[in-house]
UniProtKB/TrEMBL annotation:
Domain of life: Bacteria
Residue ranges of the TM segments: 17-38, 50-79, 100-127, 147-170, 201-221, 227-253, 283-304, 479-501, 532-549, 569-587
Domain ABC3 transporter permease C-terminal: 60-178
Organism: Pediococcus ethanolidurans
Cellular location(s): Cell membrane
UniProt keyword Transport present: yes
Identification of the protein by name: ABC transport system permease protein
Family: Belongs to the ABC-4 integral membrane protein family.
């Protein structure tokens, strides 16, 4: 009978359970996606060119575990708030607490098992789909990558089942030891408003100190090396929590005392935030960390995506060299979006390659260099080419013959007298490496196979072979950055949306009261948008600050990771704004009365 009553109650509250299930499914899916990479040691060692990558992922797993733990605590609290009134009624009707304790234990554990199983399935699908999309878009091939990772499956199931088993025990204990009256009226109890005390200021100051230590640890990673990661992990997490628990509460109270509170429904919105902020402290801290992780990962991913062509272009002004043109090669060259095509005649004698300087006077040779991620290409005269070591190195690098040691430009008459066979060196320069990658790869493959001893594409001359090497070195970091950035973005949106929507039923009564007092729906909706806007803005601002300091960790790898930040920041903030608008629309449908009840 009790199981039947419980099922009917769940059926009546299916919308709330959908919010709960969707949040838990996304949480376990994102956890699996991270572990699919973190537990795949072959993938990490084979694709990521950072020696401490495995250790970084281990610390990342710990951080994600803490975030997931906080999320499950809130989800379990939401479940208890939905069910404790029903269980109070069951006890009033004569149900035994011992049987109800078993029922809540099984219900919590069953919800956990089902949501975890569905989440893992979703995680496998998202891992495979997102990986294929990123590999095709970024032109990256990840060796040893697999969407279905058995170790990640085991870690995810074990971790979530342990969490839900503990949650089941806690829920059973609460039910057995809470008075019936509190069970019946638990979801109607008002939160206590916060008070400004000296401890609040001390806590806020402590939070700032902890954040400063964390930022310092990230900025001095070359000195602290491995030690900087745990220091930053502990201090930034604790500092973020203290900051939300103190300074933002003080800020809301300060605004309530100002003139802003007297305009429209600002006083009501600030009052809502005043009561909410205590309950939201942990969740806002979690969302700030997730915001920083997501934005930082996407920023680093885009940084490497931008850096790879720059590294390649900086090695040579020309994309590829054609040594022995064939009809098939010439057809492929016509498919390229060419900017320039230059041909020089050469003779190789011993370890020296000779060129006719008249050809270089007619068509100037170009060299390139990188300055602050900007590729600078310039023409060089024959005299400079003869005397400039950097220019000679770039010309020598186009020969695809590592036995050669020097380049000499001679007059036309001397060039004709050199007793050696002539060959042509055709230099191709396209509008962009990324756009022309597929055709350049085909040409390079044909050229490499034409040598007496088959040559690797990486040993050919030009920027494209360097582009291939850079893709191998940094492509893994680029892929992981985008992959984890999108995963963390999904989880942070899920966390904040779940927390806001889980309190919709309680807030609905307050907005109905406003409606009955004659408040126009336009003002109510405006108040909701401002209130939710603050809840989205606070973690966004702190998350951006975390990222700005966190990028210091990538200075040894990327040189200057702060160049062109407007692109990843702009894309990310647009996605974040989209989540805010979706949350507002759903929340308004749940809490705003459908009919004005004016007096």
């Amino acid at each position: 009978m009790l199981f039947k009553l419980a099922f009917v109650s769940i059926k009546d509250s299916w919308r709330d359970y959908m919010v709960l299930f969707s949040g838990l499914i996304i949480s376990s899916a994102i956890f699996y996606m991270f572990e699919a990479i973190a537990t795949n040691q072959a993938l990490i060692k084979g694709n990521i060119s950072i020696g401490l990558a495995s250790v970084v992922f281990q610390f990342g797993s710990v951080l994600l575990g803490i975030i997931t733990l906080v999320y499950i605590v809130y989800a379990n609290s939401f479940l208890m708030n939905m069910r404790e009134h029903d269980y109070g009624l069951f006890i009033m009707l004569g149900g035994k607490k011992s049987r109800l304790g078993v029922l809540i234990f099984l219900e919590t554990l069953l919800i956990g098992v089902i949501s975890t199983a569905l989440g893992v399935l979703v995680g496998v699908g998202l891992t495979k789909g997102l990986a294929q999309l990123l590999m095709s878009r970024l032109d990256v091939r990840m060796a040893h990558f697999t969407a279905l990772n058995n170790l990640a499956l085991i870690v995810t199931f074990v971790f979530f089942i342990i969490l839900f088993f503990m949650a089941s025990i806690i829920n059973q204990y609460k039910l057995l030891h809470r008075p019936v009256l509190k069970l019946l009226r638990g979801n109607t109890t008002a939160d206590k408003p916060i008070k400004t005390t000296s401890w609040r200021y001390a806590e806020g100051f402590l939070g700032l100190i902890l954040l400063a230590i964390g930022y310092w640890a990230m900025a001095t990673i070359e000195t602290l090396t491995l030690l900087s990661i745990p220091i930053a992990l502990v201090t930034i997490v604790l500092g973020t929590y203290c900051l939300y628990n103190a300074l933002f509460q003080i800020l809301i109270l300060t605004l309530k005392r100002g003139q802003l509170a007297s305009k429209g429904l600002n006083g009501f919105a600030l009052g809502q935030l005043n009561f909410r902020i205590r309950d939201y402290t942990k969740m806002l801290a979690v969302v700030s960390i997730l915001f920083a992780l997501a934005l930082g990962a996407i920023t680093v991913g885009m940084g490497y995506h931008r850096l790879i062509p720059s590294i390649a272009r900086g090695s040579s002004a020309y994309d590829l060299v054609v040594y022995k043109p064939t009809p098939k090669t010439q057809k492929l060259v016509q498919k390229l979006n060419l900017k320039e095509q230059t041909t020089y005649t050469r003779k190789i004698k011993g370890k020296t390659v000779y060129f006719d300087q008249n050809e270089f006077q007619k068509i100037a040779f170009q060299i390139s260099k990188v300055k602050q991620e900007k590729v600078i290409v310039q023409n060089v005269t024959v005299k400079k080419l003869q005397n400039n070591e950097h220019a000679q190195e770039q010309l020598l690098g186009l020969q695809a013959n590592y036995d050669l040691q020097q380049v000499k430009l001679v007059t036309h008459s001397k060039f004709q007298k050199i007793k050696a066979g002539e060959s042509k060196l055709t230099l191709l320069k396209t509008s962009g490496l990324t756009k022309n990658t597929s055709v350049l790869k085909q040409i390079a493959t044909i050229q490499a196979n034409q040598f007496s001893q088959k040559m690797a594409i990486q040993n050919l001359g030009g920027a494209y072979p360097v582009y291939q090497v850079a893709n191998v070195m940094f492509g893994g970091l680029e892929f992981v950055g985008f992959f984890l950035g999108l995963a963390f973005l999904t989880m942070l949106a899920s966390c904040l949306m779940f927390k806001i929507l889980s309190g919709a039923q309680t807030d609905k009564r307050r907005y109905r009261m406003l409606n009955r007092l004659g408040t126009r729906q336009k003002l109510i909706r405006r108040s909701i948008r401002r209130e939710l806007g603050v809840l989205f803005l606070l973690p966004g601002v702190l998350g951006v600050i975390h990222v700005m300091f966190g990028l210091k960790m990538f200075v040894p790898l990327m040189g200057n990771p702060y160049i062109h930040l407007q692109t990843p920041f702009g894309i990310f903030l647009l996605l974040y704004l989209g989540y805010y608008l979706i949350t507002v629309i759903i929340y308004e449908k749940l809490v705003v009365p459908t009919v004005d009840m004016q007096f």
